[in-house]
Known about the structure:
Number of domains: 1
Order of helices and strands: HHH
Helix content: over 70%
Largest sheet: none
Structural class: mainly alpha
Distance between the termini: 7 Å
Radius of gyration: 14 Å
Amino acid sequence: MTIDRVVYIVAGFFVLLSLALGAPASPIFQSEYWLFFTAFVGFNLFQSGFTKFCPLALILKKAGCCN
Length: 67
C-alpha cells in the first residue's frame, strides 16, 4: 500500500471519528471541541495539496511501514 493511500485512510478515519465525537446529535458525543480536530485534519489535507508536505507521510516514511 502506498503512503498516499494510508494518509487518505487515516485522515478519513480521523475526520469521521472527530465528527462523531463533536456533533451533539451523535450517540458518542463528547464535546464540541472535537470539531477543532476535524478542522486541523482538513487544513493539513488542504495545505499538503499545495505544498506536498504532509506530517503523517514523513512519520510513515521514517517508520518504514509504507513504500
